[in-house]
Each structure stands twice: as C-alpha cells, then as structure tokens.
Design brief:
Oligomer: single chain
Shape: globular
CATH class of the largest domain: Alpha Beta
CATH architecture of the largest domain: Alpha-Beta Complex
Largest sheet: 5 strands, parallel
Strand order of the largest sheet: 3-2-4-5-6
Radius of gyration: 25 Å
C-alpha cells in the first residue's frame, strides 16, 4: 500500500495581498515560490514580458549569422531531427521558419530501427553528395563527436540544438544551443524540451531576419506545447509559459493535419473545448510517437505539415492504425517483463530485461510502464546480432543518465535525462554493463525505502471545498512534472453510496458526507478504480486523497473529487 507523505502548507506572510484563494497561495508557497511577484507571475504568466531573450544563449548570434549566410548564398540545408514527438515538432517549426526565409531545407528524421538516435556517418556522407553545406540538429547530437568531425571534414557546418545531458567532450560544432552547456550560463531557464530550444532559435531568426513576420511565431506554439508536454520536462518557468499559451493556440490550430488527427482519434478539441496537458499526454503525443515506433516518424511529420484535407485524413488514419498496433505490442512486452520482474528481479533494485524479440520502437514505453508498477529503475534492451540497444526509465531517487555515464567505457553510445535515457552496447559488454549498473544502483538505493509514496499537498476541510477554491485551483494549470495537480487529503468522511459506472465495471463512483453531521454530499470518481476500491462499503468512515475539480455538463456545474487513494478507519489500511 502506498505511503501518504503530507506536506505542511506554508503560512501566508501578513504583508502579502494576493488575488487568489488563501489555500492556493499557501500551496504555491509550499512549492517553492517565495514572493508575491513570483506567485502572480506563476498564476498569470505574460508571454510578451516573461519570455527570456533567445540571445542570452552565447552562440545564438553565430547561429543567426550562419543561417543568414545560408539564405544569402542559396545553400542547401538539412534539419536533422529525432523520431519522437519532441523531435518531430522541433523539425516542423524549424522547417516552417526556413520556408519563410526562402531556404531550401531537407528534413531528415532517422529510422529508429536502422539508424538509431542522433546523427550518423552514412547520413552525413549522403548529405555531402547532395551538396548540403549546413546541418542544424534538433533534439539530438550533443554527444555526436565523431559525426560532427566527419561533417567538418566534408565542408559541412553543424549547428547543434539539443537539451539532453551535456558530456565532458563536446562535438566541435559551428555553434551549440543547449541550456545545459557552459556557453548557456546566461540563459535563465535550463529545462527546455528539444522543441523549446528549437523555438528559441526560431524566435532569434524572426527577430533578426524576419521582424515584420514575428507574429507568425505565436502560431507555432501549438507544436511547442505538444513537444514539451510529450517530453515530460518540468512544467514550470518558461515551459509553463510556452505550454499555457500553446494550448490556447492548439484549441484554434490552423493545421489541417492536427484537425484530422483529432477527428480520426475522436479527440475533443476546438475553440469551445480547450485541451489540457492530459489530453495531449494521453491522446495526441502517443499517436505522434507511434509513427516512429511502428513505421517511420515521417508519417507524423507529414501529417503535421500537410495542408490538403484529403491527404491529411489518409495520414491520420494510418497514424491511428499505427497507434493501435503500438498499444498491442507494448502490452505484450509489458506482460512478459512483469513475469521477469516478479521472479528474476523480485529481490533486486534494478530491472534489466533483454530480449531479441523486444521491438526497439516500444522499449521506452515498456520501461516506463514497468517503473510505474514496480517503482524500480528499469532497462528494456533489444539484443541484436552484435549490438544491443535499449531504453531506461528511472525513479526520482536515481539520476539514470549520471549512473550510465559512470559506465560509459562499456558503451558505444548513450544519452538522455535524469529519468530517461538510451544506450547502444556491444553484446560482449552487455553482461559487464548490467553488473556495474546493478552494483551502482544498489549502492545508491541502499537504506532507501522504495515503497510507493503519494505526495499530499495538504489537508482541506470539507467547509473549505467550494467553487471559489476550485476556480483558483484552475489557475495553476497547465499541470505536469514539477507542477502536478494538487493532491488533497479530506478526513473523517462517511461513505453514503457506492456504484459502478461505465461499461465492464471498471470505474467507480462514491458519495461521501462529513462525519460531523453536515448535510453536504461530495461525489468522488475513480476511473479504472473498481478493483482498487471494491472493498469499500456504505457506512465506512474514511480518509481520502483526491484532486478537486469542476465538472460541467449541459450548462450545469458541480464539484467533483477525483479519488486517488482511501484509508478506512480502524482496519489499518
């Protein structure tokens, strides 16, 4: 059973005069905001004034100058992307920008199965034969030392835009835009997604070379929001700004491909139904990612760029089929790895599953699902004839990319973040790599309780739950990593009614009233929660964890509790 870790809400300084509910202000103070100005900026960020100057990146002037040279000399340029939603959206906004400049730009997105992640020598040699003079990468290449050296030897300048972990030995590129690099010390926000970094380049280009068209950059924010949410970066600071405004643009997107994707996938988004981060995370991003996992990422890229409704619908239908196939394959592999986790790795702190039949396109998804269930760092590895490739997902207690870097002498290639990474390793080193990683992780987790934990933002009294509170909680959106939807504890409730909802008895609805005799009744819903809460009976005295939300339907609105967990008084649970 999950532990409840209750946070103490901070007191509001008497000097503060805030236009938000006191509980919301306390919550924000408890999450690390310190001043009135920081709270106001968080609740109501301003796109014009809060967006950092792209030229705070030291190399940005070099980037713009090199792109101007490409335009003036009519050079052929390659945008070298990545096959996930972050890389695809990055490629699309840069391609649109180069089209505005009149630059002939080829978008190259590598095949996940045959090329793998990042730049490769074969592609660079092909570009040289096509008389390409400049490559600009998005969401990749910060570790591609040999590949950049090869490009340089062929007379091709390389501009790297990336957001991944920066190694000690950097490629000798013409310019590097990465918020984690030493040449980005002046840039105030470090956690941009790949598409966020690409967008800073776009902003710089429009400021210097297309100032009369700079308003067009706002219409790219729909893709910036999708890529940022899909890459699970912290939704604070500039990411919060980009996503908040990007979701507004997404609700009125001008992209034919996206509207067809919404139609085919039955995703309710329009000017009257604004999207949220959950809708992007669960419905839009997986479909875009499915292209690179099952077929080729060009399918999703072409959908985004397509203006013809007939062709866009064909792409959307194909993408929908790919997503369905991805779901089936993922579940098959997850079921197999769960057996290993429950047996072979039962007493281990690190799950390392290797299989020749594990499709490379879904290993990251599988790792993520296994981590969710077992709360252990997990690697899912596809073993080929001489080389194995795989993905890692981690838990907050382990920075997985730093741990992998401690084993770099055993690897061909690696890269990623603190919680997600990928590797290529020669089969002869696979066992040694596992043993070293297992030892490192076991040591780092020594004495740490890995039982699942639910972080609770604070306790809320039943008489505090009203529409004023709900309306102000809405101001904290968009929710995501480092700005999770607040979890509240409500104590001493009586279960008045229990019923299943939906088909197949998967969902459950509970009605609670305060045990103090108050006539108030609260409706709580748990989607896919029947199994978890089927033991609850009418009359139980319970404490619950929930999100507080507003439910609106046909002009009616009510307060709804989204049930997360529950403890029955007196039974130890």
């Amino acid at each position: 059973m999950a532990k409840w870790s209750l946070n103490d809400l901070h007191e509001i300084p008497s000097s503060f005069s805030l236009a938000v509910h006191p509980l919301v202000a306390q919550l924000l103070l408890s999450r690390g905001l310190k001043t009135e100005k920081e709270i106001e900026q968080f609740v109501a960020p301003n796109y014009q004034t809060d967006s950092p100057d792209p030229f705070a990146f030291d190399d940005m002037e070099k980037v713009v100058a090199r792109i101007k040279k490409a335009r003036d000399n009519h050079e052929k340029v390659v945008i070298f992307g990545d096959y996930d939603a972050d890389g695809i959206t990055s490629s699309a906004i840069l391609k649109e920008t180069f089209d505005c400049l009149g630059i002939e730009a080829i978008v190259h997105i590598p095949d996940k199965k045959t090329e793998g992640y990042g730049m490769n020598i074969a592609a660079i040699e092909m570009f040289s034969q096509q008389n390409v003079k400049m490559i600009i990468t998005v969401d990749c290449a910060i570790t591609n030392v040999a590949e950049v050296e090869k490009a340089n030897s062929l007379g091709i300048d390389v501009i790297i835009t990336d957001h991944h972990h920066v190694p000690e030995n950097l490629p000798k590129a013409h310019a590097i835009i990465n918020p984690h690099a030493k040449n980005a010390e002046r840039y105030p926000f470090k956690d941009l997604a790949g598409v966020g970094v690409a967008f800073k380049v776009v902003q710089a280009i429009f400021q210097r070379l297309l100032p009369e068209k700079i308003e067009q950059t706002k219409w790219m924010l729909d893709l910036v929001a999708i890529g940022t949410i899909a890459d699970c970066v912290p939704l604070v600071g500039e990411n919060r700004l980009l996503v908040k405004y990007g979701l507004v643009v997404l609700s009125k997107t001008r992209r034919t491909g996206l509207t067809e994707l919404f139609s085919v996938g039955r995703i309710m988004i329009d000017e009257n139904v604004s999207p949220d981060t959950k809708k992007v995370s669960f419905y839009i991003a997986p479909r875009i990612n499915a292209a690179g996992r099952i077929n080729h990422a060009y399918l999703a890229y072409n959908l985004i760029m397509e203006k013809n409704p007939v062709l866009a619908r064909d792409f959307a239908l194909e993408l929908e089929a790919s997503n369905s196939e991805r779901q089936k394959i993922t579940q098959t592999v997850v079921d197999e790895v769960k057996i290993l986790a429950e047996n072979l790795y039962k007493d281990k702190k690190f799950i390392f599953a290797v299989g020749e039949h594990f499709p490379i396109g879904v290993v990251g998804l599988v790792a993520g699902k296994v981590v969710q269930q077992f709360n252990k760092p997990t690697a899912i590895i596809q073993k080929e004839e001489t080389v194995s490739k795989g993905s890692f997902r981690s838990i907050p207690q382990i920075n997985i990319i730093e741990t992998i870097e401690e084993c770099k002498e055993l690897l061909i290639k690696f890269g990623g973040h603190s919680q997600a990474a990928g590797i290529s390793v020669a089969n002869e080193n696979l066992e040694k790599f596992y043993e070293k990683m297992d030892a490192l992780i076991s040591k780092k987790l020594e004495g740490i309780d890995l039982a699942p934990e639910i972080k609770v933002d604070g306790e809320v009294k039943t008489d505090e739950i009203d529409f004023d509170l709900i309306e102000d909680l809405e101001k904290l959106k968009p929710f995501g990593q480092n700005n999770e939807e607040p979890v509240f504890m409500v104590k001493n409730l009586i279960v008045r009614e229990k019923r299943t909802i939906g088909s197949g008895e998967k969902h459950i609805k509970l009605y609670f009233s305060p045990a103090d005799g108050s006539p108030k009744v609260f409706e709580a819903v748990s989607f896919n929660g029947y199994e978890k809460f089927k033991h609850v009976v009418e009359g139980n005295n319970v404490d619950i964890l929930c999100n507080l939300q507003k439910d609106e339907w046909n002009g009616n609105k009510k307060i709804q509790l989204m049930l997360i967990d529950l403890k029955i008084a007196g039974d130890g649970n």
